[in-house]
Amino acid sequence: MYSFMGGGLFCAGVGNILLIVSTATDYWMQYRQSSNYMHQGLWRYCMPGKCFPHSDSIAHLDATRALMILSLLACFIGIIIGIMAFIHYSSFDRFDKTFAAGILFFISCFLVFLAMAVYTGVTINYYGKRYGNWRFSWSYIIGWVSVVLTFFSGIFYMCAYRMHECPRSTNSH
């Protein structure tokens, strides 16, 4: 049980760090315009030597930002509850912290997946038709890696929950 929770905490911790890096950096997409390479993130777009904030409220960027921030919060709260379950913090006896942490990690995974899907769909439909020389960059890839890590942290915590619950249910018969 503890090895599953330890693995889940490790995946969630790394996933949360990657979520922060992915959300904060400006390398979601790179493209070439007028013989200059430019890149953009969720908050700014950059030309050689200078970055500018996105001045317009672009719906897909707003949605991606909101979903990424909500995912960060869900993952962070899941980590806190996961640590409480790991050290047997007992302020909530009727509240199974292992199960709650697993659910929060799955919620975080789902929110990041939605954010990445929204960004991917709009970017491919918009930039794919207008620019020939563009690509997703490392911040975007880190976002997809965090989807996988938060998913596995949820799996690990659900396995720990099942291992913890199975002995209880067999003793009650």
UniProtKB/TrEMBL annotation:
Bilayer topology reads:
Multi-pass membrane protein
* Cellular compartments per GO CC: plasma membrane
* InterPro entries for the chain: PMP-22/EMP/MP20-like, PMP22/EMP/MP20/Claudin, PMP22_EMP_MP20
Q: Where in the cell is it found?
A: Membrane
A Pfam match is PMP22_Claudin
Q: Which superkingdom?
A: Eukaryota
Where is it mostly found? Answer: membrane
Chain segments annotated as transmembrane: 7-29, 66-87, 99-118, 138-160
Which keywords does the record carry?
Membrane, Transmembrane, Transmembrane helix
- Which protein family is named in the record? Belongs to the PMP-22/EMP/MP20 family.
User: What name does this protein carry?
Assistant: Lens fiber membrane intrinsic protein-like
Q: What is the lineage of its organism?
A: Eukaryota, Metazoa, Chordata, Craniata, Vertebrata
